[in-house]
Amino acid sequence: MKGVGSLSSVRILELAPIASRMLTSGYIWLGIACLLGFFLAHMLLLTWADYSYVQPATSLSYLTIAILSYFILGEAISPLRWLGVFVICLGVFLVGQTSPSGALERA
Description:
This protein is 72% helix and 0% strand. It has helices spanning 12-23, 26-48, 51-57, 61-71, 79-96, 101-106.
């Protein structure tokens, strides 16, 4: 959205050029495609396992986002934030050690 430009007014005539740049931006469409892909994968996982098992696993996105932000966007990530990501991943690992009851009932 930084490439599209900032919104300085809410007038309809000024929104049209920004809306057209948004709708023709490949990055916006790539983001929408990624969101749809995640949604489909999430729904498929929910057919396999319980929500209490699937939802914590999606928290691994915090690690993915932190790594991609660091390497691709060049963002500075503080040690405290890395510690928070590590704690989240540790929690996901601990939850992952339990077997999902939905998968066992269907097997």
